[in-house]
UniProtKB/TrEMBL annotation:
Record bears the keyword rRNA-binding: no
Protein name: Geranylgeranyl diphosphate reductase, chloroplastic
Reaction(s) catalysed (UniProt annotation): phytyl diphosphate + 3 NADP(+) = geranylgeranyl diphosphate + 3 NADPH + 3 H(+)
Record-stated family: Belongs to the geranylgeranyl reductase family. ChlP subfamily.
Lineage, top ranks: Eukaryota, Viridiplantae, Streptophyta, Embryophyta, Tracheophyta
Role played: Catalyzes the reduction of geranylgeranyl diphosphate to phytyl diphosphate, providing phytol for both tocopherol and chlorophyll synthesis.
Length: 445
């Protein structure tokens, strides 16, 4: 499906006009919200708000662009967010995890019958979600937000200043007057900076899209590969994920951002002959958050997706959490306005943050712990791959990943897993040290 953005002429906003308020009470008019950022988080928030009757402005600076991303989504997202099946490029049923010493674990034996991991291109998914938000009534505004004017009091509006890119003769400036703002503008969120939401650590994701010869592409028909090791990332992993007519080959790191190109060379070398003969058709890089921001709600401004820091450590997953947070936030704003005729910080904390944390905080903390335990060195990574071969580990992982729920473990299974983890860490400590010794000798030679 071709990636295309849809901007109906009827919803374009004058670049020189400022929306004016009326003298009527808030409850007598629709809620007005600016959603800044048109990825899965912003588009899902805009759709939820517009569907509830809010006047919604969805601002996106680069409608034709897309964040570098592996593109894997959990199976439950297809139904939960009504994603058409024809948007899916590949249905992965085989996942291979490769250790620093190139030992491989096929992470597929416990995949439930009929289940798969959908792979999509972000430009296709994002465009679809924005178009659906527009069909629900959101007004799409191609433009870059430059600043916010904060309200003097609880009943005063926010002013969103932006540079429009919709004018054919060049960019023009515009201002929107709104009751609330959703910041969905990524890891380097301007909305977060403008309201003082605090800083957080970001990683860098680097990815090449490589078009392979037909025979090589056939190898990746339903297979995705993950590589761990200090040569591909000191604190994350490298990937080879299949798309419609190419593979996405990339890596990410927080600890060695200046060395990202060296790490990318590492993942290309590890994939080796499997991607030989391929042609690079696109190179992409983008920051991704390492943990949630200190403040995700400030006044009547709420952050969602990457702007809020909703990317899991260990797995690096963010698409589902972006869309989910956007929808929860949009629903919370609309519900409070319908009930009280206002949007408040307390209401957003109660209706959005509390719901989000109740559902996902434990999962984020668990994955953060796994990252700390297994990604600290090659010994831990060897142990991780060894554990990935365990059928009980695979079953628990697929249950939580595919359907986004933390499933209670089986007491004896968890006890056996704990014992195996300790044994693997001890055994792989020796393996990891030997791998490091051999790599040093190779570099010296």
């Amino acid at each position: 499906m071709a990636a295309a953005c849809y901007y109906p002429a009827r919803i374009m906003i004058s670049c020189s006009a400022t929306t004016t308020t009326t003298s009527s009470s808030p409850s007598a008019r629709p809620l007005r919200v600016a959603v800044v950022g048109g990825g899965p988080a912003g588009a899902s928030a805009a759709e939820a708000l517009a569907s509830a009757g809010a006047r919604t402005f969805l601002l996106e600076r680069s409608p034709a662009g897309a964040k570098p991303c592996g593109g894997a989504i959990p199976l439950c997202m297809l139904d939960e967010f009504a994603i058409p099946r024809d948007l899916v490029d590949r249905r992965v049923t085989r996942m291979r995890v490769v250790s620093p010493s190139n030992l491989a674990a096929d992470f597929s034996r416990a995949l439930p019958p009929g289940a798969h991991i959908p792979m999509l291109r972000r430009e296709v998914l994002d465009s679809f979600l924005r178009r659906r938000a527009a069909e629900a009534g959101a007004e799409l505004v191609p433009g870059l937000v430059t600043s916010l004017s904060l309200p003097a009091g609880p009943a005063d509006p926010y002013l969103v200043h932006y540079i429009s890119s919709s004018s054919p003769e060049g960019a023009g400036r515009g201002v929107l007057e709104v009751d609330a703002i959703v910041g969905a503008d990524g890891a380097n969120s301007r909305v977060a900076r403008e309201v003082g939401a605090g800083d957080y650590t970001t990683a860098i994701a680097f990815q090449e899209r490589i078009r392979l010869p037909d025979a090589a592409m056939g190898y990746y028909d339903d297979l995705a590969e993950m590589y761990v090791g200090g040569d591909v990332s000191p604190d994350f992993y490298g990937w080879v994920f299949p798309k419609c007519d190419h593979v996405a080959v990339g890596t990410g790191t927080v600890a060695a951002k200046p060395e990202i190109k060296r790490l990318q060379s590492g993942i290309r070398a590890r994939a080796g002959p499997k991607i030989a003969g391929g042609r690079v058709v696109k190179v992409e890089a983008h920051p991704i958050p390492e943990h949630p921001r200190p403040r995700r709600v400030v006044g009547r401004v709420a952050l969602v997706g990457d702007a809020a820091g909703y990317v899991t450590r260990c797995s690096g997953e963010g698409i589902y959490f972006a869309a989910k947070s956007g929808r929860l936030c949009g629903q919370a704003m609309a519900e409070e306005w319908a009930r009280t005729g206002a949007v408040t910080e307390a209401g957003l904390r109660r209706g959005y943050l509390r719901r989000w944390d109740d559902e996902f905080l434990l999962m984020f903390r668990f994955l953060d712990l796994l990252q700390r335990v297994f990604y600290g060195g090659n010994a831990g990574r060897e142990a991780l791959v060894e554990m990935c071969a365990d059928e009980y580990v695979q079953r628990r992982t697929f249950e939580s990943y595919l359907y986004k729920r933390m499933v209670p473990g089986e007491p004896w299974g968890d006890l056996r897993l704990l014992w195996r983890t300790v044994a693997s860490m001890v055994r792989c400590g020796v393996i990891g040290r030997e791998v490091e010794r051999l790599r040093r000798l190779e570099l010296q030679g």
